[in-house]
Each structure stands twice: as C-alpha cells, then as structure tokens.
Specification:
Distance between the termini: 47 Å
Low-confidence stretches: none
Oligomer: single chain
Number of helices: 1
Structural class: mainly beta
CATH topology of the largest domain: Jelly Rolls
Number of strands: 12
CATH class of the largest domain: Mainly Beta
Largest sheet: 5 strands, antiparallel
Length: 191
C-alpha cells in the first residue's frame, strides 16, 4: 500500500494514479481539467465546503433522493400572431406527449391575447385530451390596442399513455376578431 507522508503528489495531464493491488480504482484529470475518479468514494461526513459530501448528508439535506421529478418533459410553442372571427374553439398550439407513465404532472401555459372590440369577450382555454378544461377565461378587453398576458399551471395525475394539451381561443361573437401570439405549453413529471 502506498503512503504519502509530508509530500505532495503531482499529476501531468496524461498521468493517472491507480489504487489497489489490481488497479481497481484510478484518479486523473480529463482533457477539460476535471478530476475524475472511477470508483466509489466513501468516508465520513463533510465538514468543510471543499470536502466531498456523502449520500447520507445529501439525503438528509433534501429530504430524500427524488428520482421521479423531471424524468419527463415536453414543450411546444407558437410565437406568431394568429386571429379568428370564430365563436368555435381554434387551436393555437397543441402538445402531444409520447407515452408517459402514470404519475403526477405539472402543465404550464402562457399566451398573449388581444380583441378588436370593447363590447364583447375573447375566449381562451387550455384543453386536455379533448375532454378536460384546465383553464377557461372570457375577457372583455378595455383597450383593443394592447396585448395582455394569460398564464397559469395545473398539477394533476395522468394515466399512462399519450396525452394532448391544446391552447385554444375564439370570440364571443363573430363580428369581431380575437388575436393570440407567443403561446407556450409544457408538461413536466413531478411525482
């Protein structure tokens, strides 16, 4: 077994230090200058900021190691201006997931809206799988030259399979025009 007593060990960029009778572990600097270790490092709890943290300290600090959150993410957007005179829902952007596992998901959305009338409403909704409204807003716009933001999120349990989230809009009457731009929708697994 090697011992270093009062001496420093220096590595050139192409050197490695091997540990164990059969070189079971190695330590070296890679091409980007990061220290690499190819074996489990164990020891006592870190007490200084520069010391390695052991798993039990990390688990205690964050309340357990979570491996589910963020294991699925999908995003869709449509930035350009779209308009309709329809009173029937029109898709601005739609996100269809790949097959997801059953779990808890966060669905978020954002859009900017405008209506060329102060006398009637523009309508906006987030529609899941063609059956469930996550958001449904009617808004009578007092200044038809301004855009206003609509955003939100919902946390829900999804069954395993593929799901579709649509950002939709229309108007209260056919005599005026509803506008939408910068529409985004995303979905993230959180549990």
């Amino acid at each position: 077994m090697a011992k270093f007593k009062g001496k420093d060990l220096y590595l050139n960029s192409d050197d490695q230090v091997y540990f164990g009778d059969n070189a079971e572990a190695a330590m070296w600097y890679d091409a980007s200058g990061k220290l690499q270790i190819n074996h489990t490092v164990s020891g006592v709890a870190a007490v200084q900021p520069y010391e390695l943290v052991i798993l039990s300290q990390l688990t205690d600090a964050i309340g357990g190691v979570t491996t589910v959150s963020g294991t699925y993410y999908a995003y869709a957007k449509s930035d350009g201006d779209s308009s309709t005179n329809s009173i029937n829902w029109v898709n601005k952007v739609s996100l269809t997931t790949s097959t997801v596992v059953s779990g808890t998901y966060k669905i978020g959305w954002y859009s900017e809206m405008q209506r060329n009338s102060q006398a009637n409403d523009l309508k906006y909704r987030i529609y899941l799988d063609g059956t469930t409204e996550l958001c449904n807003i009617n808004h009578e716009h007092s200044d038809q030259s301004n855009w206003f933001p609509l955003s939100g999120f919902d946390i829900l349990t999804l069954a395993s399979g593929s799901h579709t989230v649509a950002v939709q809009f229309c108007g209260e009457t056919t005599g005026n025009t509803s506008y939408i731009r910068r529409a985004r929708v995303d979905i993230t697994r959180i549990a």
